[in-house]
Amino acid sequence: MPGARRSRCPVSCTLDVLGDRWSLLVVRDLMRGKRRFVEFAASPEGIPTNILAERLKRLRAKGIVRTERYSDRPPRVEYLLTAKGEDLRPM
Question: Is 32 strand, coil or helix?
């Protein structure tokens, strides 16, 4: 079942969101000031764009990232950490 938790343990729940190969690197880049998709894609780790799009979507759905539109034509957004995402900063 999508969205189901493995357990109620905070560590386990965090791993469900951030425990894959790429999500923490996206959060790291946000903390370092990257905001646009092309900036994340240019990171030296070379995240594939389809995976990057999926991770940004997942982080947004979990309330760690929010978007802000900066262009209507074509529609383009910047990614920003939410307060919940900022709480990860000590890592």
Answer: coil
Contact residues for 58 (Cβ-Cβ < 8 A; gap 6+)? 17, 23
Structure tokens at 60: 């947004």
HEC profile of 48-81 = CHHHHHHHHHHHHHCCCEEEEEEEECCEEEEEEE
* Tens digits of residue pLDDT in 45-65: 999 999 999 999 999 999 999
Strand, coil or helix: 38: helix
User: 18-47 pLDDT, tens per residue?
Assistant: 878 899 999 999 999 999 999 999 999 999
- Exposure letters 36-69 (e unless 16+ CB within 10 A, then b): ebeebeebeeebeeeebeebbebbbebebbbeee
CA–CA distance, 69 with 13 (Å, rounded to integer): 30
